[in-house]
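Hi support team,

I submitted a single chain yesterday and got back a structure, but I'm not sure I'm reading the token output correctly. Could someone confirm the output below corresponds to the sequence I sent? I've pasted both exactly as they appear in my results page.

Thanks,
R.
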Amino acid sequence: MPKLTVQNLFNRQVEVAPGQTLLQALQADGIDWMHACGAKGRCTTCRIVVQEGLEHFGPLTDSEERYRGRGRLQSNERLTCQCTLVSGDAKGCVPRQTMLPHMKYSS
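Hi R., thanks for writing in. Yes, this is the structure output for that exact sequence:
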């Protein structure tokens, strides 16, 4: 099963099941992750900055394409509520702008 390593959460590893979004996998592993629109792809608060393994993600969703076209989602960012990890492992981090105040982050 593919794994996501969240580097600024002390390199926490999360297994991502087939068809499961990253947000679903993170929540199933007990990790709080910002998602203001309720995981509907209507905002960018759930984004992750992908540092390695971008090629292992599924294709961009319509929502991700829309935000990328507007310059609100960079080429190395994905929306955790929309994307899947289809093969291989990936590494990413929580953007500073969406860090939750009650969570402890590493550098």
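A quick pointer for reading it: The radius of gyration is 12 Å. Let us know if anything else looks off.

Best,
Support desk
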